[in-house]
Specification:
This protein is mainly α and 361 residues long. The chain folds into three domains: 5-112, no CATH class; 122-262, no CATH class; 264-340, no CATH class. Helices cover 70% and strands 3% of the residues. The N and C termini lie far apart (123 Å).
């Protein structure tokens, strides 16, 4: 059982029975001695703690101090030799020849201690010290070099991806240009060039979207430029979100496009035009946009097909008049049965024409 934590780290080396073997008035001195020697090496503290009770009981403090000095001398050369000397010295103190302990310590100390360094060894040690210092000084530079390599490798990966999308843009652009109306080519090319410089992948999306916007006259060239400018701002903040913008894949892109659209939108006047057509034709008529042709029949007495917006005139009042004219024209066709015509209604005429010009099989 150890003495316990009351004596600090010494309790690691001193067993209770060891301390009990020391006269009470010498215990504090004993603990200090053990603590002092144990600072050199844990194993030294353990062995000295075993030997000191005997020495304190059989010799005076001067002898005990000599013992500690001799053990320390050997331990400075090699702690393992010091442990063995700490174990053997008390027996030598009991020998008839009082010169034996000192001679013994001299022999073991000399055997343990390395011989003096020669000139070559000294030079090697000095060179090693210098190199180690230089290596320590280089550590920040080595770390910086590793960081730079990582950054450059990441840039190489980005550049490779950019070159890949540039190749895709090179293949996609000519067919798009072939479909583009000639009057829109200069602004189109300039806008695609600006987006491509910022991000080729976004340019792939922008090239396709701008073709539809300009050819369909959903925006003017000036409006397309503003739309691209807003998209480049988004792209600068977040590449993925910016690419979504240029393919009209985000609400923000659609909102900006709606904001920039010029002319008069059909949906803003559709109700008025419906009432107008109904009044003219005498029938309940719906107003549909040409963008709905995929879902409705263009020629029917149920509805009138009109452009989703008109921007022919700079003045929206004039654009509204154009809508009214087109609505009146459609209402007239409905009123006078243009869409209700059938060949069965003109059977005599068909028969006459067939007799005169011949009928098909």
């Amino acid at each position: 059982m150890t003495f316990g934590p009351a004596v600090g780290n010494v309790g690691m080396y001193v067993a209770r029975e060891m301390l009990a073997a020391v006269p009470e008035d010498q215990r504090q001195a004993y603990l200090r001695m053990v603590e002092s020697i144990s600072e050199l090496k844990y194993q030294l503290g353990v062995e000295v703690a075993r030997q000191l009770p005997r020495l304190l009981a059989e010799h005076d403090l001067e002898m005990v101090r000599r013992y500690l000095d001799q053990v320390t001398r050997v331990a400075d050369a090699g702690w393992k030799s010091g442990v063995e000397v700490a174990k053997q010295l008390p027996d030598l103190y009991d020998a008839p020849d009082d010169q034996l302990p000192a001679a013994y310590v001299d022999i073991i100390s000399g055997a343990t201690q390395s011989p003096p360094e020669d000139t070559e060894t000294t030079a090697l040690v000095r060179e090693l010290d210098q190199l180690e210092k230089e290596l320590r000084d280089m550590e920040p530079k080595v770390k910086r070099a590793q960081d730079l390599k990582s950054q450059l490798a990441a840039r190489d990966r980005r550049d490779e991806k950019r070159r890949k999308h540039a190749v895709e843009l090179a293949a996609a652009l000519p067919p798009l240009l072939a479909r583009l109306r000639p009057r829109y080519r200069p602004p189109y090319l300039d806008l695609v060039r600006r987006v491509a410089k910022a991000d080729p992948e976004a340019a792939l999306e922008a090239a396709d979207t701008l073709l539809d916007l300009l050819n369909g006259e959903r925006v003017s060239p000036e409006g397309a430029e503003q739309w691209v400018n807003r998209g480049l701002e988004v792209l600068d903040k977040n590449k993925e979100v910016g690419r979504g913008y240029f393919r009209l894949g985000s609400k923000h892109a659609l909102d900006v496009l709606e904001e920039l659209k010029e002319g008069l939108a059909l949906k803003s006047v559709a109700r008025v035009l419906k009432l107008y057509a109904t009044a003219l034709s005498g029938k309940d008529v719906a107003i549909r946009g040409t963008n709905e042709l995929h879902a409705v029949d263009a020629m029917t007495a149920d509805h009138i097909i009109l452009p989703p917006d008109i921007r022919f005139f700079d003045d929206n009042d004039q654009n509204f008049i154009a809508y009214k004219v087109a609505t009146a024209h459609g209402a007239g066709r409905i009123e006078f049965g243009t869409y209700g015509f059938a060949l069965a209604d003109v059977g005599e005429t068909v028969e006459h024409l067939t007799t005169r010009y011949g009928g098909g099989s």
